[in-house]
Amino acid sequence: MSLFFPSTTNYNLIIQTSISLILTLLFTLLNIPSFLLHGLHTYIHPDDVTSQNPNPNSNIKAAIRRPSDGELKPRKKTKDKFEFDENKAQIFRLKLNHNHLQSRLYFDQLKGVFSFTIVACVSLLIHTIIPRSSNESIGVISNGTLIPILLGFLGFVRVLVSVTRVSMDSSGSKSSEMQLSVLVSVLGCLIVFLLVNEVFPNWVVDFEFRSLDGYAKICVSVFMGFLAGVLYVPAAKMARAYWLATDQIRCNLSMIYCGWLGRMLVYVTYLMTVFVSLLWISPFADLLVNRNVGVKKVGYTNRLVGNVGMSRSDFEVFRLYCLLATGVLQMLSLRANLQMFLNESVLSWYQRLHASKVPDLTYSRRKVFLHNHYLCLAGIQFFAPSALVLLFLGLSRIDDNVLDHFPALCNLLPCSALVKEMGLFMSWWVVFVSGVFVSANLVLYRQGILYVS
Q: Where does the chain cross the membrane (predicted)?
């Protein structure tokens, strides 16, 4: 590693500053965040197409068209005459480009959140790769540690503010979901308060909270409860996206669920989220840890727990990599989730089209418009969990005792716990609550209590 990065500490500061500035310029000049949404298929009704789409070279195509004259079959004549224009029953597909996206609400916020998060994650990754001097007298500025700390902290604050703002938009979320998010916030605060005060037995979760004082425990509990409440609405949308992407409703419409690649990505992301949620639950973690590594024992035992698996040190590294993979997978599945968000309005149109002989498409027309208009709002909500996981995990890997250089701050906050244990706990908490919320919604969908319409 030293062949690529000299040991001089000033190089760390130069590398961090240069890469951060270069990435910021690239995201600004090349408009890279637009590629997140570029090429997605959105849908509009014929009334929204200018002059009934006179341009034959336009990229607007009918998703479901009226059959040709040769395909038409004679129908039995009935006495009742229904005044229904079949042309208005069609729905048209539009491929999004940058000009379309600029008119969407919260587009600038999504661009800013995405760019800042990627820059902060790259800075935190570089900090874990390049060597740093062990001389504590050098300081955090010359050592280059202050840049990833600031970028990581400002990154998660920006993500949290953005997702909170869009979740409070009453027109973009259901009132029932907003009320449930408040209830979830209170329950989450209570559960974390019991965890940090070790009311639950020590074998429940594999975290230590002894370094936190009473004031810090209250702050952590309130923040974690707030975080759980904010993440409920994104998790509910992720559950609907999973339900449509994997065609759980068996509608057999290829225009609604995604292809095999997107479907596999959605499956793996959900399974990985559930798996990582269990890695810090002590009963499950004990099954993967072999406590007898390096210890000579005579005889055999029938007890499984503690006698199979990997060593404790390898297990710690393993679940950190799994946490990292979960955040990356959630970020990679962003496009699939957004496409399912748009396809949700198509399902609503299809259901109402076949609900009666004289369909009332007013509701589906409004739903198509709203899903079009609030696409970037949903993008922020889908992007927030993965961004928070990666940022919290990156902050937890900073082990330079950076806060020791700020005595005034260390007098208010427990430095080691804040940088190390709490960063890791926050990252796992985001994955855990997302897994619980998505799983609970999927169970309700399976039982028919909830349904996508």
A: 13-32, 112-131, 137-161, 182-203, 215-235, 256-281, 318-338, 374-395, 426-445
